[in-house]
């Protein structure tokens, strides 16, 4: 149940404006994502939440993949890179790969950074608006391989790449995206059930303990999640993919 929400349709905002709230999976982001990342850490956190209602492990995972780290790494390593310096993007890709590889000891954090930095390079650095199609394709694949559910940006990239890269390359990426969207459909059903159960349980706990402060912010964040918007946006992504 790791989710980024409160979106604005297909709008791709500059990621430097993103909130660094540790509950970003619920309310801090400016776009909607649908992570399908599977790892032992995620499975343990979700199992503990389901069994006990304790979300501390999920919160710890949020802190591990925190947006502040991605913003810092982007500002240090990529913000001053000129896309026009090398049309094939190799220096950019090499710098990115060296950084991502340095986090290989922690696959969970690596996946978060893989997605976050690829997004920043595509959007903030302006790559998605350029004509450097092989480089756009590379970072689109990075978004897909991270399994962090950046479907709106991935679709924007695929629509840009169509007709500009080999057909088999587009086919491979659309196949990956289709499978991830289908997995997200299943996850969203479980997400809705889990969130409603948490709202009821946390609300009762706080009602029984009116002086308790811990958990009130989380309850407020849970109530702000627009599950209908998440579902509609996911279906819009599926429709866009079918037209590619």
Residues in helices, as a percent range: 55-70%
Q: What overall form do the CA principal axes indicate?
A: globular
N-to-C order of helices and strands: HHHHHHHHHH
Strand portion, in percent?
under 5%
Let me know the number of strands.
0
Kindly name the structural category.
Answer: mainly alpha
Cα-based radius of gyration, to the nearest Å? 19 Å
Our count of helices gives 10
Kindly report the average pLDDT value.
81
The CA-CA distance between the termini, in Å, is 29 Å
Q: The biggest beta sheet, please?
A: none
User: Regions with pLDDT < 50 over 5+ consecutive residues?
Assistant: 1-30
Overview of the structural elements:
The protein is mostly helical. The protein is 64% helix and 0% strand. The protein is built from 10 helices and no strands. Helix 1 (40-52) runs antiparallel to helix 2, helix 3 (67-77) packs across helix 5 and helix 8 (167-208) packs antiparallel against helix 10 (227-243). The longest helix is centred in the last third of the chain and has 42 residues, at 167-208. The protein is globular, with a radius of gyration of 19 Å. Mean pLDDT is 81; it is low at 1-30.
């Amino acid at each position: 149940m790791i989710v980024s929400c409160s979106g604005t349709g297909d709008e791709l905002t500059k990621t430097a404006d993103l909130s660094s709230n540790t509950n970003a999976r619920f309310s801090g982001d400016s776009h909607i994502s649908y992570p399908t990342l599977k790892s032992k850490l995620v499975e343990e956190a979700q199992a503990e939440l389901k069994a006990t209602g304790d979300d501390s492990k999920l919160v710890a995972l949020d802190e591990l993949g925190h947006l502040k780290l991605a913003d810092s790494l982007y500002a240090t390593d990529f913000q001053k890179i000129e896309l026009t310096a090398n049309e094939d993007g190799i220096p950019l890709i090499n710098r990115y790969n060296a950084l991502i590889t340095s986090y290989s000891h922690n696959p969970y954090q690596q996946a978060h950074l893989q997605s976050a930095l690829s997004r920043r390079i595509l959007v903030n650095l302006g790559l998605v608006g350029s004509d450097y199609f092989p480089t756009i394709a590379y970072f689109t694949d990075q978004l897909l391989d991270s399994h962090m559910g950046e479907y709106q940006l991935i679709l924007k990239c695929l629509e840009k790449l169509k007709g500009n890269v080999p057909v088999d390359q587009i086919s491979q990426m659309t196949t990956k995206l289709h499978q991830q969207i289908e997995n997200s459909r299943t996850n969203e059903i479980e997400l809705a059930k889990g969130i409603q159960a948490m709202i009821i349980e946390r609300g009762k706990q706080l009602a029984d303990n009116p002086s308790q402060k811990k958990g009130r912010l989380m309850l407020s964040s849970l109530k702000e999640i627009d599950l209908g918007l998440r579902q509609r946006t996911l279906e819009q992504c599926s429709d866009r993919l079918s037209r590619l």
